[in-house]
Amino acid sequence: MKSVLPGLAILILFQVGTAAAQPQQHDDSTSIADAARRSRELKKEQPKSTKVWDNDTIPTKPGDVSVIGQAPAAAASDDPAAKPTDDDAKAADKIAAPASTLAAPAVERAEASETAQKIAAIQADLAAAKSHLQSVKADLDILQRTFVLDSQMYYSKPNYAADKDGAAKIDGEKAEVDAKQQEVADAQMKIDQLEAKLAAVR
Predict the structure, then answer these.
(1) 176 lies in which domain range?
(2) Which of 59, 137, 140, 194 is within CB 3.0–4.6 Å of 126 for a Cys-Cys bond?
(3) Residue 190 half-sphere exposure toward CB, CA atoms < 13 A
(4) Number of independent structural domains in the chain
(5) 59 within some domain
(6) Minimum mean pLDDT among 37-46, 47-56, 65-74, 86-95: which range?
């Protein structure tokens, strides 16, 4: 009975000590995490240290020290963003395109108007030429009829060769018929030229 009690007491003490040690370990890990977090926060709150110049850190080259500020990273011409790209050129073309698109219909309308005026002028000349042709044809018809009648009357006389006045009249009428026929031919030629010109304009 005496030998059992000391062993039992040792076992109870060991369990109590182990239980007491576990919360202490948890507290230690928690306190370490809190300390690390506080350390990071303090580092964030601390101002950045300024550079201190001494004999060892002062640059020896003339261009290494700037009293104005930081040197520009690159010239504007070296900046890729400053250089026009293909997209910028395409955008500029798209902006310029509406102007040329608007100008094209205006030019087409002007050309169409000019063509319409030419057609109208040719049609007016053609109408006048056709009217003149009808007139000279009518005159030719009258002259031809007169010439035929006068010729029949002249040649029906038994002694027509002695009629000098009749012969002169017949010769004059024949010359008028020939002149009128030439006028008809000229009028017809003018009509043909105007019709060809109208077809070319259209």
Answers:
(1) 119-201
(2) 194
(3) 18
(4) 1
(5) no
(6) 65-74
